[in-house]
């Protein structure tokens, strides 16, 4: 079954950059749309964006122009490159795999991103 492991979170200053990784099993990226979500206490979970099996991407307005989702098929890994970070970007970031065939979702454990001076 699908297994997701996020990494790369940490503390960064406003205006800085951070790259998150979502490692999965071989073949997953070809049959799943890969989503990035973020969650802040007291706030609803927000969809950051996604990359589909064909490589197409989509982003929330709040991160458009600053965040980029990419993938390395050989490494079965999806990335979230975050630039020009703001304190409002502070959250736990989660990777999610949505099967294009069955619509079953799989969630990773999350990784904490803190943007602060």
Written account of the structure:
The chain is mainly β and 117 residues long. The protein has one helix at 28-31; strands at 5-7, 10-12, 18-23, 32-39, 46-51, 57-59, 67-72, 77-82, 91-99, 105-107, 111-115. Strand 5 (46-51) and strand 6 form a beta hairpin. Strands 2, 4, 5, 6, 9, 10 and 11 form a 7-stranded mixed beta sheet that branches. A 4-stranded antiparallel beta sheet has the order 1-3-8-7, with no helix packed on it.
* Outline type: globular
Q: On the 0-100 scale, what is the average pLDDT?
A: 97
The largest β sheet comes out as: 7 strands, mixed
Which blocks of ≥5 consecutive residues have pLDDT under 50? none
> How much β-strand is present in the residues?
over 45%
Tally of DSSP β-strands? 11
Helix vs. strand class: mainly beta
Rounded to the nearest angstrom, the radius of gyration is: 13 Å
SS field, number of helical segments: 1
Question: What is the helix/strand order?
Answer: EEEHEEEEEEEE
How many angstroms separate the termini?
40 Å
Helix content: under 10%
List the helices and strands and how they pair.
Layout lengths: L4 E3 L2 E3 L5 E6 L4 H4 E8 L6 E6 L5 E3 L7 E6 L4 E6 L8 E9 L5 E3 L3 E5 L2
Parallel strand pairs: 2-11
Antiparallel strand pairs: 1-3, 3-8, 4-5, 4-9, 5-6, 7-8, 9-10, 9-11
